[in-house]
C-alpha cells in the first residue's frame, strides 16, 4: 500500500484524507493518505520531509503555512508552481529527489469548466484579491484564453503589479475597488480575497455582475458564503459556486500526478458537502 499525506499546521480539520480515500475507492487504487501535523516550533520543514521520505511516503500535499517552504525545498518545479511561487504537491521520486507542483489553479479552472459547465474562452474575467491564492490561479486561467482579466484588490498596487507580471496577448489589468471598469459587467467573477473568512464583503459595485455571470468564491462552508449571497441578491439568475470544488479539484490533480488516474470530482464534492451539513 503506497503512502501519502497532507502536512500543515494546524491540520486537524483537513478534508484531504477523506477526499483522497473517496478517490482511491472510486478508482480502485491501493493507497493510504493521512494528515500529519508539522509543528514549526519543534522541527523544521526540511527535516520533516527527510523523515517522511525515509518512512517510504510517495507523495505529500502541503497546506498552510508551508507552501513557500515547499517551494524552497523542491529539487525541480513545474511551470505552474514557478508561476504561483508556491507548492502544494510533492512527488517523492525513486532517486530521492522531490518534484514540486501547484494544483490549486488547475483545480479551480477544472471546477468551473467541468462542474460549472462554463468555458473561459473569450470571457471577461474579474478577480477580487491579489494575494497568494490569486497568484496561484493566474497561469492556468490565462491558458484558457479568456478575452480579458481584471484584478481588483484592497491594495491597488498589488493588483497592478500582479497584472503586469504575465507575458500574454490577453489584456490583464489591475486596480483598487473603486477603479474596476464596469461598463457591461463580467462573465466570470472570482473572489480570491480572504475577506470571507471574517464574513466581510469586498466593497465592489454590484454593477460588475450580469444576469448570466458565474460568481465563484474560493471560500466554502456548510452555508453559501456572504459573497455568494450578495451576488444572488443583486442578480437572482446568476450562477454561484463556492470553493469546495476547487479543494476537491486540486486534490484530484495531485492524485493524478501520483497515480496516473483522474478521479471524477462531482460525486466526491457531493459526498464531502453532505458530511459538512
Ligand atoms: P491568500 O493566500 O489567502 O491569498 P494573502 O496572500 O495574505 O492570502 O492574500 C489575502 C488577500 O485578501 C489579499 O488580496 C488581501 O488584500 P491586500 O492585498 O490589500 O492585503 C485580501 N484581503 C484580506 N482581508 C481583506 C478584507 N477584509 N477586505 C478585502 N480584502 C481583504
TrEMBL record:
Residues given in the record as shikimate binding sites: 14-16, 63, 88, 104, 220, 250
Molecular function terms from GO: NADP binding; shikimate 3-dehydrogenase (NADP+) activity
Gene Ontology biological process terms from the UniProt entry: amino acid biosynthetic process; aromatic amino acid family biosynthetic process; chorismate biosynthetic process; shikimate metabolic process
Binding residues annotated for NADP(+), in chain numbering: 129-133, 153-158, 218, 243
Keyword Transferase on entry: no
UniProt catalytic activity: shikimate + NADP(+) = 3-dehydroshikimate + NADPH + H(+)
UniProt keyword Signal present: no
GO cellular component: cytosol
Keywords, sorted A to Z: Amino-acid biosynthesis, Aromatic amino acid biosynthesis, NADP, Oxidoreductase
Pathway in which the depicted protein is active: Metabolic intermediate biosynthesis; chorismate biosynthesis; chorismate from D-erythrose 4-phosphate and phosphoenolpyruvate: step 4/7
The Shikimate dehydrogenase substrate binding N-terminal domain, residue ranges: 6-89
InterPro entries reported for this sequence: Aminoacid_DH-like_N_sf, NAD(P)-bd_dom_sf, SDH_C, Shikimate_DH, Shikimate_DH-bd_N, Shikimate_DH_fam, Shikm_DH/Glu-tRNA_Rdtase
Active-site residues from the entry: 67 (proton acceptor)
Domain SDH C-terminal: 243-273
Residue span, Quinate/shikimate 5-dehydrogenase/glutamyl-tRNA reductase domain: 119-196
Enzyme Commission (EC) number: 1.1.1.25
Sections of the chain in a coiled coil: none
Matches recorded under CDD domains: NAD_bind_Shikimate_DH
Family: Belongs to the shikimate dehydrogenase family.
PANTHER family listed in its UniProt record: BIFUNCTIONAL 3-DEHYDROQUINATE DEHYDRATASE_SHIKIMATE DEHYDROGENASE, CHLOROPLASTIC (PTHR21089:SF1), SHIKIMATE DEHYDROGENASE (PTHR21089)
Subunit record text: Homodimer.
Protein name: Shikimate dehydrogenase (NADP(+))
Native source species: Thiosulfatimonas sediminis
